[in-house]
Amino acid sequence: ISLMSSRIAGFEYPKEKLREAWGILLFNHFHDLLGGCSVKGVYKTAMNQLGAVDSICDKIVYGAMQKIAQSIDTVCNDVYKKAPERWFVWEAENHGMPIVVCNSKPYPIKTTIKMFISASKITDSRGNGVPFQKVRGEQTLKGRKDVIALSVNLKPYSYEVYRVYQLKDPERTFDKIICDRDRLENDKLTV
């Protein structure tokens, strides 16, 4: 992702940080450590060093993703471009909050992403409604237990901008819903 970001968004490729992480990773893959014949302290040190590698790589990925997201025009009209101090009003003017999802892989991905955010509507970059579901999160964040699960399908080395809306009067997905002991039915499906 750092190479992709350096090519399309001007991210400074972190050659020295990657070299440092690679050196630590290689040091911790010698034959005695992998074979399980070292003393306990060696494994504790190795875990700490591998944690440092993970941290270095997380910072690189986060920085690269931020640079890509900053290079994408997520502003809805020229008013915002001329007045960045008004950017916090996405929802007040019904433009939806932009969420950028990237695929840094050389192959297409279809996956589910989860976000700690409330939503009543989500659209893709073409304005089409996107199905999502409120699910219970693995953790609680500031008292919020629920997250939004969104299915995404991205081409290799691409991104998609989704817009999240928090409408006061959410759009109805189905006109009628029938639920009884033996049947669950809406306009599209009967079970």
Strand segment tally: 8
Q: What would you call the structural class?
A: alpha+beta
Mean pLDDT: 81
Terminal-residue CA separation:
44 Å
The arrangement of helices and strands along the chain is HHHHHEEEEEEEE
Quaternary assembly: single chain
Strand content: 25-35%
Fraction of residues in H or I helices: 25-40%
Strand arrangement, largest sheet?
A: 1-6-3
Rg, Cα atoms, Å: 23 Å
Largest sheet: 3 strands, antiparallel
Counting DSSP H or I runs of 4 or more residues, the number of helices is: 5
Shape: extended
Poorly predicted ranges: none
Describe it:
This protein is of the alpha+beta class and 191 residues long. 33% of the residues lie in helices and 28% in strands. The chain has 5 helices and 8 strands. The strands form 3 sheets. A 3-stranded antiparallel β-sheet has the order 1-6-3, with no helix packed on it. It has a 3-stranded antiparallel β-sheet with strand order 2-5-4, with no helix packed on it. Helix 2 (15-27) packs antiparallel against helix 4. The protein starts with a helix and ends in a 5-residue tail after the last strand.
SSE arrangement:
Layout: H1 2-9, H2 15-27, H3 31-35, H4 40-71, H5 78-82, E1 97-103, E2 109-115, E3 121-123, E4 132-141, E5 144-154, E6 158-165, E7 177-180, E8 183-186
Antiparallel strand pairs: 1-6, 2-5, 3-6, 4-5, 7-8
Helix pairs in contact: 1-4, 2-4
